[in-house]
Design brief:
By secondary structure, this protein is mostly beta strands. It has one helix and four strands; from the N terminus they run E-E-E-H-E. A four-stranded antiparallel β-sheet has the order 1-4-2-3. Strand 2 (28-40) and strand 3 (46-56) form a beta hairpin. The two termini are 27 Å apart.
Length: 87
């Protein structure tokens, strides 16, 4: 089963098409936040954090709900707009 939102997507799903980020409120809306995953050396010693963007194509409330499930450091959500590219 595919999660309702987030950036986990089956690789062959036709909905996972190329998009262009825009500044046009008439386009589709998505929300994004950044999580900082701890990086460890091969021998297990932590040495920093790697930023990863999480995109949620849904409402801000749904994005906040996804963000609340992540226990590591994360940034506030921000809203962006997108349009699907034609193939």
């Amino acid at each position: 089963m595919t999660p309702p939102c987030g950036n986990t997507f089956p690789p062959c799903d036709k909905r996972a098409r190329s998009v262009t980020i825009t500044n046009d409120p008439a386009d589709g809306e998505f929300w994004q936040f950044e999580e900082r995953v701890q990086v460890r050396a091969l021998i297990g010693i932590p040495y920093g954090r790697m930023p990863q963007d999480v995109n949620v194509i849904s409402t801000r409330e749904q994005c906040e709900a996804v963000r609340a499930t992540i226990r590591i450091r994360r940034t506030p959500v921000r809203g962006l707009y997108f349009r699907r590219d034609e193939r």
